[in-house]
Design goal:
By secondary structure, this protein is mainly beta. It has one helix at residues 2-22, and strands at residues 32-43, 50-63, 66-80, 87-102, 108-125, 135-149, 152-160, 167-177.
Amino acid sequence: MKKIIVFIFSAIILQSAMAQSEKSSGQTFKKFKVDISLGFAKPQSGDTKAGVIFAIEPKYAVLDQLSVGLRLEGAGLASIDANGEKGKVRVLGSYVGTGDYYFTNNRFRPFAGAGGGIFTMASVDIEDSNETIPTSSTFGFLVRTGFEYGHLRLGLEYNILKEKAGYFGVKLGACIGGGRN
């Protein structure tokens, strides 16, 4: 895993240096955009099976190929039996600083990214209605890849949390702003 992260950041630095020497006229894309996404979540392990994700992520393009942002995401994960009497529900919220590297400046823009920040978690057993909902906060990371095509965004993310509380997400969304200058 460390080798992959070192490779990605090395590629980012090398590509940024090459882009600076090739291009001195300014940026092709607008600097500010907001990504809004909805998707599917699959937990790493535990007693929840699947769920949904909603995310909003304002971003600032430092360079055409490098943007930084703040991802605000909510994920609801559940596992409920056929009768609806037993099960577990887990809700996660995250506030994560992110960085995305875009491999091209074309209309089709594949990217890879990473980030780190605070994840809050709450879970409850459905069959025990008198139970209080325990909450906790922890620091976590994410790695992701995907592509943008015009203002459409498709992403695959893995959220890395302690005690195998992480989850994999597939998200489809729209980019508001950030088009070509």
